[in-house]
DNA sequence: CCGGGTGTTCGACAGGATTGAACGGACCAC
DNA sequence: GTGGTCCGTTCAATCCTGTCGAACACCCGG
C-alpha cells in the first residue's frame, strides 16, 4: 500500500529517515560507517546525524551513534491510544492468570504483526515479546489475523514479505497456508506447532472489528505454551475456548473506546 | 548537551522530525491540522507526511495520520542491546518474585528517566511503566540516579526540565532536592513518598558503571509499593536492602556485555 | 446537488542540501 | 615521544530541491 506513486518526496528527509532506520538495526555505529554503508558523503551524513541528534532521535556515545529511547516512548504512546490495547490489556492479564501461560496481544500494520502487550502466568515460557515485530505467516497470531482478510490482501502481504522459514516447520508454501487459513476460519482459532520457534506452540483468535459494516480485523490474541504442554484436550479444546472467549469480549469492549 | 552550536542542520529533515514528534504526542491528526499547528504550508506538510508514510514511520488511517508501531519496535531493539537491560532483566524478575511488588529498571537519556523494563509480583500495583519517560526529580529511580552525578550535571538537567510538581509532595525546590540527594548518596538508596503519584511509594538504588575510572551511572532499579505498605522496617530496611543488593549484582554482571 | 472539509498537484523561485577535499583531534603501536 | 590511522568537523561552490499559494480533485453529509 505504502510505496511508490509518481508524486514528490522530500529527498533530504528520506535520507535522514533511512539513516535512522539503519541505525535502528544495529549496535553503536560510527558516522563514517553509516556513510560508507549507505553510499552518502561523509560530510552529508554528519549533518544528518547532527540533525537527528538535535531532535533527540539519536544519541551519540563514545563509540558511535545509536537510536534514542525516545522512539520507545513514542511507540509506547501510540500503543496506549489504540482501542485494541485499551480493550485487550485487562483480558490478556486475566487469560494469563487463568491459564498460567504466556499471553500476547498483536496488532497488524504494514503487513507485519506487532506484539503490543503480553503477560506471563505462573508457568509461562519466557522471551521478549512486547515490542517485537513478526511476520504473519509463521505464527498463530498472524494466521488468526490472516484468516480474516481478503485473499487479495494475503497476496499483497505474501508478495511484500515472502514466506521465509525460521524453523523446519514454518509454512513456506502458499497453498498450505491457504488451507490452514481456511480451517482457522471455520474453527475460529489458529494454531502454531513450533513454526516460529522450536519448542513453542500457540493458539490464537482474531479480534475483529464488529462495528463497521464489512467485518474487518485489527489484531489477535494468543496463548503460547512450551511444546511439551501442547497436546491433548488442553491444547486442542481448553485453550482454544479460553482464547476465543477472550477475543469475543475484547471485540465487544473495543467499541467503547 | 544536545542543542545549539553554530553548525549547520538540515532544515527539511528538522521539519520532518518535528512533524513526527508532533504526531507522537497526539491521537490521529489530519494533515491540515498539522500544517496549521506547526505553521507550515499545507502542501509542504503533505510532502513531509508522504515521505514519512513511505518510510513507514507514519500510518495513514481514515481520520488522520498517526505514528507507526515501527517506532515501538525500533525502541525495543535499542533496549535489547543495552547492557543495563541485559544484566538487569533477570534481576528485576527475581526481585519482583521475592518481594511480590512492582519492580522497574530505568536508564537515563537526555535528562529523562526511561523505564525500560518492569515485572509485577503477586501483590503488585498496576500501571503502565515500561516504555514510559519520566522526569528525574520526582521519583526514587530518578533521585537514585541523580545522587551519583556531579552537581553541574544536576544543574544542567534541572535547568532544562525544571522541577514541575505532579503531586502535592513533589520536590519543587532545588535545595530540598540537594539535601535528599545527599542522604541518598550516603544511604545508597533513594525514596519516594507519593511524590510522583498519589498512593505510590518507591525505593531505588543506582546502577553504577564500575569499570570506567571515574565511576558513572547509567540507571537505577526500584521497587514500587502502595502507600499502605510503605511503612515500618519493610519499607525502610527490608526493601532498601533487597534493592541495593540487586543493583550491586547488576553492576558486576553488566561488565560482561 | 451543493458546500465544507479533506488530500493532492502545479510551476516558479530562492534558498539550501550535497560534495570532496582539507583540517583537527583522539587514540594506539611502536 | 612520534607517526599513523581513524574519527568527526568545517568550508565554499554547485546544482538541485524544498517551499509556497493557488488551484484542483475528492469524499461525505445535508
UniProtKB/TrEMBL annotation, chains A, B:
Keyword terms of this UniProt record: DNA-binding, Transcription, Transcription regulation
SUPFAM superfamilies reported for this sequence: GAF domain-like, Winged helix' DNA-binding domain
Keyword Membrane: no
Positions of the HTH arsR-type domain: 1-91
Entry annotated with the keyword DNA-binding: yes
Domain of life where this protein originates: Archaea
InterPro entries assigned to the protein according to its UniProt record, in alphabetical order: ArsR-like_HTH, GAF-like_dom_sf, HTH_ArsR_DNA-bd_dom, HTH_MetabolicPath_Reg, Tscrpt_reg_IclR_C, Tscrpt_reg_IclR_N, WH-like_DNA-bd_sf, WH_DNA-bd_sf
Pfam families, sorted: HTH_IclR, IclR_C
Domain HTH iclR-type: 10-71
A Gene Ontology BP annotation from the UniProt entry: negative regulation of DNA-templated transcription
GO MF term set: DNA binding; DNA-binding transcription factor activity
Residue ranges constituting the IclR-ED domain according to the UniProt record: 70-256
This protein's name: ArcR family transcription regulator
